[in-house]
């Protein structure tokens, strides 16, 4: 019995679609697939800025943003918390949150978090 490789199966499937589906239908399928994948692609992005020292001694701020999606606020929160933790860990300390604010709650808008924190020694 001959086993078929995945490449062979995909190639045969692609040939079958080309034979039976019109070019206009292929474009519609591609648009539908792209619109279905777009929310997944948007959910993958979150970025955190650099740590900035505030006017208060020992306090720092961070800003992060995440592309819209159902849980973008959580990704922006996670990004600032991780950056604060990394920053303090480099100094042999742990972060302590002074304040955090968030903007953007709708599904397709950018979500932003701003964190003010201090680094304290580990106990």
SSE order and pairing:
Elements: H1 6-20, H2 23-42, E1 46-48, E2 52-53, E3 59-66, H3 72-89, E4 93-103, E5 111-121
Antiparallel strand pairs: 1-3, 2-3, 3-5, 4-5
Listing every helix as H and every strand as E from the N terminus to the C terminus, the arrangement reads HHEEEHEE
Share of helix, binned: 40-55%
Mean pLDDT: 79
Beta-strand proportion? 25-35%
Outline = elongated
Low-confidence stretches: none
Count of spatially separate domains: 2
Rg from C-alpha positions? 23 Å
The total beta strand count reads 5
N-to-C span = 65 Å
Number of helices in the DSSP assignment: 3
Characterize the main sheet: 5 strands, antiparallel
**Structural class estimated from helices and strands:** alpha+beta
Protein name: Lipoprotein
Describe the structure.
The protein has 123 residues and is α+β, with helices and mostly antiparallel strands. The chain folds into 2 domains: 6-42, no CATH class; 46-121. The protein has 3 helices and 5 strands. The model has no long low-confidence stretch (mean pLDDT 79). It comes from Paraburkholderia azotifigens.
């Amino acid at each position: 019995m001959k086993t078929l490789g995945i490449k062979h199966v995909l190639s045969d499937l692609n040939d079958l679609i080309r034979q039976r589906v019109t070019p206009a239908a292929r474009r519609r399928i591609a648009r539908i697939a792209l619109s279905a994948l777009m929310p997944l692609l948007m959910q993958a992005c979150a970025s955190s800025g650099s740590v900035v020292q505030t006017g208060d001694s020992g306090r720092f701020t961070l800003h992060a943003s995440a592309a819209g999606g159902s849980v973008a606020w959580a990704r922006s929160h996670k990004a600032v918390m991780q950056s604060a933790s990394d920053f303090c860990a480099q100094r042999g300390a742990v972060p302590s949150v002074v304040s955090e604010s968030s903007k953007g709650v709708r599904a397709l808008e950018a979500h932003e978090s701003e964190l003010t924190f201090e680094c304290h020694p580990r106990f």
